[in-house]
Inverse folding.
């Protein structure tokens, strides 16, 4: 075993030894596998871990129909982005998700109401974006699958209670994330040792900022912070700044909307093809249908960087709001 492994490896190894279910053991082994450096001296160790993972996946099948138990934290992606809502207990995460989406998480004034993640779809203009409400992040033990969900997220919404020591809440949450090698994207490049760290974009939401009378508290909170955190004051109760939040989420996810039209017909602006900024016409054809990708003769584009009906090549970079007419 290499002697220069970080403490996180031994933490994962300890959790592995204490794990009872195959799913928990698999998550710990996968975490250990991701930490061990890749070189000839570790090839046999990595191979052994992969064999253990394969064996555990086989034994996790149940007797009924050979189905596999899936962790509640293994949530399939829907829409163009997966946004995870995090924070301590009783800060209003569930109320915020309920206000923004079609989800119906348990909402109560008592702490620790949420014990499993709840997904919902947030509508921004004509785009549906997935939000996931999660259990409190201030517990002593966090399931490996929960940590994995955070690492896979496209964006984290870190919710704080503006009226109850938000600086302490942020510090506690940050330390928990840091202990699990997860840091906000804006801190990338600021650490001496950055191996094995997941960087995820973050927006800090100071919830319960119900009206303008609380703006001064938010300003004091900003001034107390040592780092430049991206902060937005919101209120799940009154809906304050929720439209601004939707817009910020769309912007940070770096998305564009492209519309398809048939010759001599109007485009349907209610059904965009949502892609990452920088996507090309080539990539757009793949999203529409393989026949367009394979047999495309030419395309016309209407948009901000093309004159009306301009003919473009496959490498043309699309812009938000472009209308594309494909010809085969």
């Amino acid at each position: 075993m290499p002697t220069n492994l970080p403490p996180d490896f031994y933490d994962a190894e300890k959790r592995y030894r204490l794990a009872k279910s195959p799913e928990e053991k698999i998550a710990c082994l996968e975490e250990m596998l991701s930490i061990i450096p890749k070189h000839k001296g570790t090839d046999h160790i990595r191979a052994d871990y992969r064999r253990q993972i394969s064996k555990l996946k086989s034994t996790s099948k149940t007797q009924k129909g050979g189905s596999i138990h899936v962790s509640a934290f293994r949530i399939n992606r829907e829409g163009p982005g997966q946004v995870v809502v995090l924070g301590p207990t009783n800060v209003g995460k569930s109320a915020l998700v309920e206000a923004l989406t079609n989800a119906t998480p348990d909402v109560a004034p008592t702490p620790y109401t949420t014990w499993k993640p709840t997904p919902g779809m947030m509508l921004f203009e004509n785009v549906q974006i997935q939000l996931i409400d999660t259990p409190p992040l201030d517990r002593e033990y966090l399931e490996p699958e929960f940590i994995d969900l955070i690492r896979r997220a496209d964006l984290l919404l870190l919710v704080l209670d503006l009226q109850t020591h938000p600086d302490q809440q942020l510090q506690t949450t940050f330390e928990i994330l840091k202990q699990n090698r997860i840091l906000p994207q804006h801190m990338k490049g600021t650490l001496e040792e950055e191996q094995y760290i997941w960087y995820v974009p973050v927006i800090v939401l100071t919830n319960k900022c119900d009206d303008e009378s609380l703006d001064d508290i938010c300003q004091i909170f900003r001034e107390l912070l040592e780092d430049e955190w991206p902060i937005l004051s919101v209120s799940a109760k009154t809906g304050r700044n929720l439209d601004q939040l939707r817009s910020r989420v769309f912007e940070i996810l770096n998305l564009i909307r492209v519309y398809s039209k048939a010759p001599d017909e109007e485009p349907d602006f209610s059904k965009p093809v949502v892609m990452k900024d920088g996507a090309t016409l080539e990539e757009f054809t793949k999203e529409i249908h393989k026949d367009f990708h394979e047999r495309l003769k030419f395309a016309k584009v209407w948009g901000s960087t093309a004159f009306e009906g301009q003919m473009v090549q496959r490498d043309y970079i699309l812009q938000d709001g472009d209308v594309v007419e494909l010809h085969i």
